[in-house]
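seq as requested:
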Amino acid sequence: MIEMFFMCSELFQLLIIYAFADKMIKRRYSQPVTFIGWLLLFILDGVIVLKVNNGILNMVMYYVLMLIILSFLYCSDFQNKIMLVIHIFVYGVLAEFVVYILMSFLGEIKEDMYFLTSALSKIVFSLIVRITIILRKKKDTMNISLKLLLCVFAMPVGTCTGCIIQYFINNGFNDTYLEIVFYLIFIIVNYVSFIMFDTMQQYVIISAENSILEKESEFYYKQCENIQNMWEGLRNLKHDISNQYVCEKLMLQKGEYEELEKHYDDMIGKLRFDEIYSKTGNIKIDSIINYKLTKIAELGAHIICNIKIPKEMKFDNMDMVIIIGNLLDNVMDALKEVQDGKVELNIRYMESNLLLKVSNSYAGNRRKSAKGEYITTKNDKKIHGMGLKSVKRTLEKYNGKLCITEEKNVFSVKLHMCI
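struct tokens:
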């Protein structure tokens, strides 16, 4: 029984150390591989404890093995890994000291308190680690809600208090009020666990959406760069057009008709643009609109485009790219299911106010969720259906408004942004 308790308490502390290392330094391998590495440390430490009957030597070998595990599993500097091991050692000593002081106030420390002091030291150790992680996040300017902060501290504090009360109850202190306090703490800890689960669930959802937004931003930025390079190449080609005429004339004079035909094919390939829909002078916005509408035109859709915006606006160009790109992607998906579709894009900018409306044909009825949000028809629910959510999240930066209407198989999105 004692051996089982010792093994469980050491495993609990090792899991805390594993989580601590993951927060402080960067992993080299995936999470499962890293976890297996830490389990290997746990097994090796158990073997050493059984074979070596020397407490100080066991402790030294444990921290040396920990440093070796950190060196293999994490890609930070060796000095940082040494500092992490030192921190873990100091936190362990500090936890033991805090528990010793706490138990001294309650009376003489007896041998039968071993289980209690061991459990309390592990809980205090986890509390110190949590405080360190929170301070690290605060240093990295991460916002932590007060509710979550209280929950983080309430769990170990409530557990420690409950352990102490339970010890007194087991040793003959049969006080009704003491038992009531114990059960109240038990209820509070469970309630706090529920709050933390709910908070973490919301965090996972927001984290997934932010990850998709970051990928979209990166994708659109690279896409705009590529399109911008294409337009720069076209400008250079137009600039060198006189030299091209000289080459063509020489080929014609020499009768090199096959070479001339090949030359014309190359020129047509470089100059092949169906239509320039946007000519505002804002390269990123022009690029995304021209690229997307050209793709939509390939679906056989009739396009009406009316854009009147200045070359420079107070809005972040990448925000505009995210909004326009997502809306036109949704249009493209809808038009794949209809024949002879129609698209109308209107953008206006007046006195720091931007008005955008995009309408398109679509087939069938769009379903909505209980919250009134449109449900994607794609198979991959996690990736698809995020277009309008991305637009809404970007609009929040400008206190923008979004209005969605559908009538006679025409889906329309209107938005207003202002600075």
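The CA atoms of residues 305 and 379 lie 31 Å apart.
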